[in-house]
């Protein structure tokens, strides 16, 4: 080894195998609990709405003076109550699903930043690293991995995580840049109900209520986060002599 090679210093990002296992296990626990404890309560919305309709019908038909009331009108009113209950449950389920996605994303995001901060502190100023890592947008955080030689943005899981971040931003803030970006880059998550009725050449602004996520999407996002941890190399290196030159 010559003197030049001996002077080469490299920064390292090291993902301990036990840490990888822990991150994946924690994520999969979150996903399983979301499905079994939260989302499963909305598995039979039509059945719940039908039961609500029947209960409403029984209450109204047994009210004092029911014999003088048009039973067809009671049935129609009960049906309307059941339909309204179904719509309310559907909206609540969407909120629970989006809330679950937000929690899943933020858990992953914080874990990634903690990992980077901890590893970079070995070779860089700790205070500067802390500020840079925790204030940077996600794309810039991923650029750190790219600089260390891992082309994470080229992986299929990154596109899903990028879409997930936009979905979470829309859930939190409604209309804005994230909605426009999602519609342009990942249009499958924005269902425009009026586009097919819009004359050619005429355009309307996007509505955050058009944000559409399904159980299948939830699974895809969950798999993307798992794949991120599985595909991260155990060791990544950055040539410090190149950075200082």
Describe, in plain words, how this protein is organized in 3D:
With 245 residues, the protein is mainly alpha-helical. The protein has a domain at 23-40 and 98-244. The protein is 66% helix and 4% strand. It contains 10 helices and 2 strands. It has a two-stranded antiparallel ribbon with strand order 1-2. The chain starts with a helix and ends with a helix.
Write down the overall mean pLDDT. 87
Strand order of the largest sheet: 1-2
**H-E order:** HEHHHHHHHHEH
Uncertain spans: 1-6
Separation, N- and C-terminal Cα atoms = 22 Å
Q: Mind telling me the C-alpha Rg?
A: 26 Å
Number of helices: 10
Task: Please summarize the sheet with the most strands.
Answer: 2 strands, antiparallel
Please report the total strand number as a whole number: 2
Secondary-structure-derived class: mainly alpha
Portion in beta strands? under 5%
The geometry reads as elongated
Helix content: 55-70%
Short description:
The chain is mainly alpha-helical and 245 residues long. The protein is built from ten helices and two strands. It has a domain at 23-40 and 98-244.
Q: What is the topological layout?
A:
Layout: H1 3-6, E1 10-14, H2 17-38, H3 45-61, H4 71-120, H5 126-135, H6 138-147, H7 156-173, H8 177-185, H9 215-231, E2 235-239, H10 240-244
Antiparallel strand pairs: 1-2
Helix pairs in contact: 2-4, 2-9, 3-4, 4-5, 4-7, 4-9, 7-8, 7-9
Keywords:
245 residues; mainly alpha; two-stranded antiparallel sheet; 10 helices; 2 strands; 4% strand
